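Hey, I was hoping to borrow your eyes for a little while. I've been staring at a protein lately and its backbone has me curious. You're getting the sequence in one-letter code plus the fold written as tokens. Would you mind checking whether the tokens look sensible for this chain? Here's the protein in full, and shout if anything looks odd to you:
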Amino acid sequence: MTAADGTLETLDDGRSRLRFERRLSHPVDRVWAALTEPEKMRKWWAAADELELREGGRFTIRWLNTDEEGNTAIARGTVSAVDPPRLLELDSDIHGVMRWELEPRGDATALTFTSTLELPGEYREKVLAGWHAHLDFLEDALDGRPIEDWDHWPVEVWQEHHDRYAARAGA
């Protein structure tokens, strides 16, 4: 397992929690902007069709890449916690509770991302690979290499992560 690989745990209530920790070589304010400003979000993750950046605010986020069947994911919900520029938590209909925690480390940022959700077994490696790829894309976007053409996004990045997580799960 590389340091950037995500982990998956099953909670007492049967839900799953995915967790990723990353060290990004950019200041917290820049990472926060990538998480919360719609024009920056679409360079690594999704289009924010609606984002009320306040506790209790509504959001609608539309992924710009598609799955194997050509489907686009749309998450709707509420902002359950926000403390700029350190904490963003979104409670969504399809990805459960997504939580980003940022801590400054000099000129860098320690990012902890968790997603707590109902996750059927057949989707575990797919979802781990998806978040892994999007966090890779976040780092790329911060480094000046955003995804510009989502119709031709690098699906091979997702596939590589998926294969590794699947092999690990089968071990």
About this structure: The chain has one domain: 7-170.
